[in-house]
Amino acid sequence: MMQVVMNFVFKDVEYMIYEANESMPGTAALELLCSRTHGIGADRILVFSDVQTEPAFYVFTANGRETAAAADDFLVFAHYLRQQNISINSAKFAKILGDTILVQLSEMDKNISCFEARLTPYFCDKMKQLDKNSHILAS
């Protein structure tokens, strides 16, 4: 099955949105995705799962390390959800971004660019294999 990711450039930072449908990618897979030489390329990767029932949201740097989410991470993620017509809990985002979230999102449309990338089954298998090898080496 082909995996689709969305990349956004906002304030000179490239964000990748990755929906973890089956399993959470590991450090090696995230690093491959963020690689501008061997992957898609990104400065930050925003990983989410199960947005409708029990949402989980993680932010990683280009080297695959988890980091705390910044306000712009939430803003880009909210923009993505709105673009995909996925309903969001506005109260949660307002708590994080303030009550001007709708204004911020509408202004953001002028200052953000995006593209869609499709990860082939071969590339997804390569990501899983890298994580597996990385896990074996760590044990």
Task: Give a description of the structure.
This protein has 139 residues and is α+β, with helices and mostly antiparallel strands. It has a single domain (3-138), classed as Diaminopimelate Epimerase, Chain A, domain 1, CATH 3.10.310. The protein contains 5 helices and 6 strands. The protein has helices at residues 27-34, 71-83, 90-97, 101-108, 121-138, and strands at 3-10, 13-19, 44-49, 56-61, 66-67, 112-119. A 6-stranded mixed beta sheet has the order 5-4-3-2-1-6, with helices on both faces. Helix 1 (27-34) packs across helix 5 (121-138). The protein is globular, with a radius of gyration of 15 Å.
Number of strands: 6
**Largest beta sheet: what is the strand line-up?**
5-4-3-2-1-6
Oligomer: single chain
Annotated CATH homologous superfamily:
Diaminopimelate Epimerase, Chain A, domain 1
Distance between the termini: 30 Å
Structural class: alpha+beta
User: How is the biggest beta sheet arranged?
Assistant: 6 strands, mixed
Counting H and I runs of at least 4 residues, what is the number of helices? 5
Low-confidence stretches: none
Radius of gyration: 15 Å
Q: At the first level of CATH, what is the class?
A: Alpha Beta
- Mean pLDDT equals 83
CATH fold title: Diaminopimelate Epimerase, Chain A, domain 1
CATH architecture: Roll
Number of domains: 1
Protein name: Diaminopimelate epimerase
